[in-house]
C-alpha cells in the first residue's frame, strides 16, 4: 500500500574535493614547517647575538673605566687616538690612555711608556682586540701632535717581547681595504676624541689671538685663573657572533663613550 523508502548512503568525496583537501593540508604543513624553522633560526640568532652583546659590554666597560680614570694635563689630555693612513682611507683604531698605576712620574708633563694602556687590533690577527702595556719602560712618550712618532711607538710596543697583552675579544669584524696592494684586512674598530677647548682654540689663546673667556670651556665653567677642560671619547666596534654562518653571519655595531674633566691653569 505504501511505497518502500530506501536509505541512500553518504556520498564520498569527489576527485576534485580530494585534491583540494590534499592541497590545503600541504599548505598547512608547509606553513607549520616554515614557522618551526623561523623559531629555530630566531633562537639560534638570539643565542649567538646574546654572546656578542655580553662580550661587547665587557669590552666597552673596560675601555670606559680606563679612560675615565686617566691622568690629564694641557700637554697630554688623558688619551690619544693614533690613526693609520692607507691610500685615501683613514683608520683611527688605536687608543692610547695615560693611566699610571700610582702617581704619575711627571703630572704636569708627558707620560712614560709604562704608564700607558693601549687598545688596538692585534697586528697578527685583526679580529682580536687587545689591551697592551709595557712595564718598566720609563722613557718619555712623544708629544701628542707628533703622530708619526706615535705610530712608530705603537708598532714597537706591539713587537716588544716585554709587552703584556690581554685579549679582550676575538669577534671583531674585519674587511679588506679597497685598493690595497696586499689585500690587507682591517678591524672594524673606531675611536674618536674631542677636546673642549680644542687644540686650535688653545693655540690661538697662546698666540694671543683669542681671549681666555672666549675659549670653549666645558659647561662654560671658568674663572680668572682656571677653566674646566673636557676630553670626550667615542668608541665604535663591530662584532661578528661566533658559530654563525650564511645570513646569520652579520656584524653587529656597538657604541660607547667616556668623558674626562680636568682643570687648566691660566
Explain what the structure shows:
This protein is of the alpha+beta class and 266 residues long. It has one domain (43-265). Helices cover 29% and strands 31% of the residues. It is built from three helices and ten strands. It has helices at 15-68, 147-159, 199-207; strands spanning 79-86, 89-98, 116-122, 125-133, 164-169, 174-176, 185-187, 189-196, 226-239, 252-265. The strands form three sheets. Strands 1-2-3-4-5 form a five-stranded antiparallel beta sheet, with helices on both faces. The chain has a three-stranded antiparallel beta sheet with strand order 8-9-10, covered by helices on one side. Strand 3 (116-122) and strand 4 form a beta hairpin. The model has no long low-confidence stretch (mean pLDDT 88).
Key traits:
266 residues, alpha+beta, three-stranded antiparallel sheet, 3 helices, 31% strand
**Can you tell me the residue ranges where pLDDT is under 50 for at least 5 consecutive residues?**
none
Please state the CA-atom Rg, rounded to the nearest Å: 31 Å
Q: What strand line-up does the widest sheet have?
A: 1-2-3-4-5
Number of strands: 10
> Mean of residue pLDDT?
88
Main β-sheet, in a few words?
5 strands, antiparallel
What portion of residues is helical?
25-40%
Measured distance between first and last alpha carbons: 129 Å
Proportion of residues in β-strands: 25-35%
The figure for the number of domains is 1
Oligomer: single chain
> Treating each run of at least 4 consecutive H or I residues as one helix, how many helices?
3
